[in-house]
Amino acid sequence: MALQPPPTEPERLPMPSRNPLPLSASQEAQVRDIFYARVRSHCGPEIKAFAECALGRTFTVPFACRKPHNAMNACMKAHATPAEQDAAREEWFAKRLERQKEKERKARRKLEQEAFLREWWGLPEKDREERRREEEKLRMPERIGGMVRRRGEGGEDAGRG
């Protein structure tokens, strides 16, 4: 009797990202900014060499700076990978609570300044309902993937797939 190899799992398509949670357009733009900054940080010397070559030139840049430009583009293409996009997205998620706290701090400071100015200039106070709505808005959590995520809900990795 011949030995047959054990059955293997059917081959699956690779996941395009470890973080498939959909984000809003502005959140995706923030992730993209982090991604581009990370790629630029890897290629700092190449970017600097191209910038130095291009300094003081106008329409002759493509001809005079071809080598530094090609080196810069090759470096950026080499580092602009899906793994780097995933790392940027994970960094965005890691800094989410920090951004939320900063947003709350700025909003509270704005309310304090407004109250001070109203008192200073002798303006009437806001009615209680309007003030309550503003304070309620401050307590609203950030929306991610169309769902509201409250602090501490599901841990740091809430919503990741």
Automatic annotation (TrEMBL):
Belongs to the CMC family. Keywords: Chaperone, Disulfide bond, Membrane, Mitochondrion, Mitochondrion inner membrane. This is COX assembly mitochondrial protein. The keyword Membrane applies. Pfam families: Cmc1 (PF08583). It comes from Coniochaeta hoffmannii. It is found in: Mitochondrion inner membrane. Residues 1-25 are annotated as: Disordered. InterPro entries: Cyt_c_biogenesis_Cmc1-like. Required for mitochondrial cytochrome c oxidase (COX) assembly and respiration. GO terms for cellular component: mitochondrial inner membrane. The lineage of its organism: Eukaryota, Fungi, Dikarya, Ascomycota, Pezizomycotina.
